[in-house]
Write a structure and sequence with these properties.
mainly alpha
């Protein structure tokens, strides 16, 4: 059994409860960091999908003579427009 003096002399944060608390704190910090990274990745993916949709819209608006100049046909454009955005 410890007395009051032992409790007072013990440095703060060195007991098992304090050590467990700091471990939980580190785990929470890591989870928050992973969540933030996941959120950032999701936002970047959505921005990429938005860019692809805009590019496809612009491509569809091009006249046939310009498509011919770049080596594409209207059928090529239609095939691209029918593919899901998330497929490369």
């Amino acid at each position: 059994m410890t007395n009051c003096i032992d409790t007072i002399d013990r440095p703060y944060g060195s007991g098992p409860v304090e050590r467990a608390g700091s471990t939980i704190g580190r785990v929470i910090d890591q989870l928050v960091a992973v969540s933030a990274e996941g959120a950032m990745a999701a936002v970047l993916k959505l921005l990429d999908l938005q860019r692809k949709a805009r590019e496809r819209s612009h491509l569809a608006a091009l006249p046939d003579d310009i498509l011919k100049d770049v080596g594409l046909s209207r059928a090529d454009i239609e095939a691209e427009l029918n593919r899901p955005l998330w497929l490369r």
